Amino acid sequence: MAEEEKGKAKGEQMKGKAKEAVGRVVGNERLTAEGRAEQAKGDARQAKEKVKDVFKD
User: For residues 20 and 41, is the Cβ–Cβ distance under 8 A?
Assistant: First the structure.
């Protein structure tokens, strides 16, 4: 389960980076902001999993 969540976090981060890059290229501020938000969501999910790993040991 933890590996699945870590994979989701990485996926969200990559998807967010791609959205942000596309938004910057085409000059779409909303798309850029959505990309940053997705990255933050992925970062938060990853941090949560790291905390769970610390307490698991």
Answer: no
Query: Is residue 38 a contact partner of residue 11, using CB atoms and an 8 Å limit?
Result: no
Q: What is the pLDDT of residues 37-54, one digit of tens each?
A: 999 999 999 999 889 888
Query: Does the predicted model carry a pTM greater than 0.90?
Result: no
Residue 1 DSSP symbol: -
Placement of tokens 């501020």 in the chain: 29
CB 13 within 8 A of CB 46: yes
Distances (CA, A) of 20 to 3, 12, 27, 38, 53: 26, 12, 10, 9, 30
Answer for the pair 42, 12: CB distance below 8 angstroms, yes or no: yes
The angle formed by the CA atoms of residues 18, 24 and 26, to the nearest 5 degrees, is: 100
